[in-house]
Amino acid sequence: MINIASPIIGRKERKLIKEVLDSRILASGKYVAQFEQSFAKYSGAKFGIANANGTTSLHTALLMCGIKSGDKVVTTPFSFIATANSILFCGAKPIFADIDPKTFNINPVELEKMLKKERNVKAVLIVHLYGLPCDIDAILKLKKKYKFKLIEDSCQAHGAEFKKKKVGSFGDAAAFSFYATKNMMTGEGGITLTNDEKADKYGRQIINHGRVGHSTHTVLGYNYRLTNLAAAIGIAQLEQLENWIEKRIATAQKYNEAFKGLNFLHTPVVPKSCRHVFHQYTVRIAARERDRFMKYLAENGVGSGVYYSSVIYKQPFYKQLGYKSGVCKEAEKAVEEVVSLPVHPLLSKANIDKIIKVIKSYKK
Ligand SMILES: *Cc1c(COP(=O)(O)O)cnc(C)c1O
């Protein structure tokens, strides 16, 4: 079976891990600071705060933006549940705006409708889904007009670019995940980026029990720290990231070319202004065909996945909170039609050819 995801662990990762083990400095250590600096630099942000995972990284980003109990935060319903949960962690209220069916990202027109309707929206949490940047120009225009804090959930978009600039520094803060299946990984891990020195200072407190100095605690904090072990893996992974992204893009281009003539499937749309890093290569297929298509792929040795099979507000927990169905029509349609195909950098040419051949011989 060709897997939908496959982590890569190289020689450098092993070497650095051994160094950390030998040093016996397993919790915070020099690799954490080194990793923070290199990842922030790579992404074009001034500061990076490494932390436990993408979810803690989102929570920290929201707190750094001053999100508190009762605040309204607009986000997309078409994402991993952690996106909206991080808003709830702050005691704030997630408000969902619909997506653009072509890019799967939040639609700035729908976003503005929500900003007008809800008023006093404190922040907007955008998600660069599958590795494709949102419409940053339109969103920054709205930020000017409505004065909200902008947070980028970049958990799937390491190295993605809008107009040649990397995601993660367009807003007030950004969150990345280094979970095992992301475009680069540390097992579990995350980083929060910002260009604001004060926010950076506060963020460092949040992830470390609210501590200043050795034993003074001035704010409510958590233990969201990243380990030296994880950071060592991250340093080695970051060195490979550009290679891996280029491979993903090349594979995606091969798929686009090969699937052009197929009328039962829609290939991903990439706006000219964007560098899509293809965390997922996601196609659309008629809802009634999807199960049979995925079963056919599996029978022919090709793994596939559905990200995500439900909009967030239709999850049982969100229903309990009182969220109703039907508010984001495009997102509700997308969850029925999306299928992601293997696009990870470990795919061989033979793997890619096989995937193309299998899909081309699918009979509706
Ligand atoms: C992976 C992911 C997260 C959460 O990251 P974890 O490291 O798993 O906590 C949040 N948002 C999006 C869009 C993700 O893909």
Explain the layout of strands and helices.
Elements: H1 11-23, H2 30-43, E1 47-51, H3 54-64, E2 72-75, H4 81-89, E3 93-96, H5 108-118, E4 121-127, H6 136-146, E5 149-153, E6 161-162, E7 165-166, E8 173-177, E9 190-194, H7 197-206, E10 211-212, E11 216-217, H8 228-259, E12 265-266, E13 274-275, E14 281-285, H9 287-299, H10 316-320, H11 329-337, E15 338-341, H12 349-360
Parallel strand pairs: 2-3, 2-4, 4-5, 5-8
Antiparallel strand pairs: 1-9, 6-7, 6-13, 8-9, 10-11, 12-14, 14-15
Pyridoxal-5'-phosphate binds at residues 53-55, 79-80, 82-83, 127, 153, 155-156, 177, 179, 190.
* Strand segment count: 15
Question: Uncertain runs with pLDDT below 50, 5 residues or more?
Answer: none
Secondary structure category: alpha/beta
Distinct small molecules bound, one entry per kind: pyridoxal-5'-phosphate
Helicity, in percent? 40-55%
What sequence of helices (H) and strands (E) makes up the elements? HHEHEHEHEHEEEEEHEEHEEEHHHEH
| Beta-strand content estimate | 15-25%
Q: What is the tally of helical segments?
A: 12
Major β-sheet strand ordering: 1-9-8-5-4-2-3
Distance between the termini: 23 Å
